[in-house]
Amino acid sequence: PYPVLAAREARQPGELRDAGAGAPADRLFFLLHGWAEVGLRNGSGEGHRRIRTFGAGTAFGESALFSGARRTADVIADGPVGTSAEEAGEIRQLEAEARRAVGLPG
Length: 106
Known about the structure:
By secondary structure, this protein is of the alpha+beta class. Helices cover 19% and strands 34% of the residues.
């Protein structure tokens, strides 16, 4: 059996600061309900250029998490949202368990 990811829901309208540009890549986020967008800050630091919009069921923050770099884009909620986050160590442990389950080195 595979573990179920723990839902730690937070309603956060506006910018999701833990997932914003410059934040450490220490967890993977899941959007449980609502809509959000990923955007890059303009050169002046004012405003954003939208890259994509996503809804419930989407994981985000994976690029920085797996590269080990700081986050480069902002995630902005279009209204109230529910999020869940799993720590990087938990994600790496799940990945190692999945690799072992299919006969690959962990």
